[in-house]
Amino acid sequence: MADKKELRIGLIGCGFMGRTHSNGYNRVSNFFPNLAYRPVLKAVCSRTESKVKAFASQWGYESWETDWKILIARDDIDAIDICTPNDMHAQIAIAAAKAGKMILCEKPLSRTLEEGEEMVRVIEEAKVKNTVWYNYRRIPAVTLAKQLIDSGKLGRIFHYRANFLQDWTISPELPQGGEGLWRLDADAAGSGVTGDLLAHCIDTALWLNGGIKDVSALTETFIKERVHQTSGKVQKVDIDDACIFHCHFNNGSLGLFESTRYARGHKALYTFEINGENASIRWDLHDLNRLEYYDYGDDSIVRGWRSIHVTDGDQPYMDKWWVPGLSIGYEHSFVHQVADFLESLETGEPCSPTFLDALETQKVCEAVIESAKSRSWKDIN
Ligand code: SOE
Description:
Layout: E1 5-12, H1 16-31, E2 37-45, H2 49-59, E3 63-65, H3 68-73, E4 79-82, H4 89-98, E5 102-106, H5 113-126, E6 130-133, H6 140-150, E7 157-165, H7 186-189, H8 193-209, E8 212-220, E9 225-227, E10 234-236, E11 242-249, E12 254-260, E13 269-276, E14 279-284, E15 290-295, E16 306-309, H9 330-347, H10 355-374, E17 378-379
Parallel strand pairs: 1-2, 1-4, 2-3, 4-5, 5-6, 7-12
Antiparallel strand pairs: 7-13, 8-11, 8-17, 9-10, 11-12, 13-14, 14-15, 15-16
Helix pairs in contact: 1-9, 4-5, 5-10, 6-8, 8-10
The protein binds alpha-L-sorbopyranose.
């Protein structure tokens, strides 16, 4: 380890995402031993001292701060990792870029397209290395889907279908805003399921199936008012609780997307299915090691959907883990993103999705919200 170059991390935010990223940094050098770089957990930052101290000790950070501006100003930090609620992404990323730090930003890039454009402008000008944590791309079965599509096995694509279904906000008693529940507060989050969940589906879709041309959407807010944790008052809810949209992709295929936090029984059901002229694939986050594949080229007497257990050393990332047949999980997608980021420091290549790539997802999210508001089709760009 001593011969490796250090990437000194300053992480901002100690919530769920702070834990997933920290776990990625902690695991990566054990499982990707050939990388030239290794992450060093230099400092973590959060407003509450007791919380940030406990987090630093639990995850192995050398030090902690309670003011992100101080963290950014430190010269022993190379990269800022943004794990805050969405309303902090732009100001932190812009300040970090101006200070010459690399940036790893949690998804979605921003609350609005305008915010995202400004972030991209500053980051490009500062020429700092950057990436956005759309982690699902790096689940081996999803990466394998990309390889199958790119190899031409599916042929012309006709349909792309994706869902992201949850059920955790059904109770009207659930407050909005504040710690843990900022995702229900439009000021903090920007949007509801569109920016939080559909953004994942859109990122994967753009990666697998190329750009989206236009969208037609509808959104619904089922619970119109909730107590706000900060003010203690009942306030209007401005996020979208559910969103459905359809679209044309630039390659001529049709897309159908649905997301909600009101699908009783579903906790994080992210699924997609792609139908091509020669083959189809489908994937389900609840069974994330499997990729379902149907190939019309198979001998007709055995033709049918096959379930590929993506755990073989020949399959993406899997030579780094256990032995064929043994599964990995959600957390490994973050380890893979760290590994790819470290590798990109060696190769000098961008680590996708970059801020610029993630701006494409913002464009679609913005068009989806605008389309639902205006009850009309919206072009992307
Ligand atoms: C929301 O519940 C959430 O945590 C998202 O914010 C994450 O991005 C998604 O991966 C899981 O669900």
